[in-house]
Design goal:
150 residues; 7 helices
Amino acid sequence: MLQDGTNPFLADVSALKLKFAVSAIAKRTGDDKGNVSAWIRGRKPPPSAFMIRFYTAFKKELAEKGIHRDVKELLAQLPPQSDQITERDFLRSINTKLTEQNDLIKEWIERTKRNEQKLDELLRRKDKEIMKSAKDYLLGIVATLRSTDG
């Protein structure tokens, strides 16, 4: 909070008018929903790294509402936190989240490959069924024609 008692972060979250604020913010910043909930309800002060992620993730939407924050300046105005994150910790956090996202993408790719294989096998079986049905149909026509010729 600033000296006048206002918390620009909470005001900015409110200004976004997000339908499901906790979920939307957690998804865009990669943070845990429980932590995001505590931060936007004012129960815990958000750490610097989160503030950077939040203002980066929502820069466009905030700008559309006329809100332009210099995050470093904002962080300097807020009371110091005992859990200030270092740049190294911030980068490690980002790396962890990117690794998790990469793992999810790899899993999705593998699942997609398996589904493609299943679909290919199903299509091959259906092609065989259709060809057999067509062959049986044509043989039936030939048999009918032969029986009417003789």
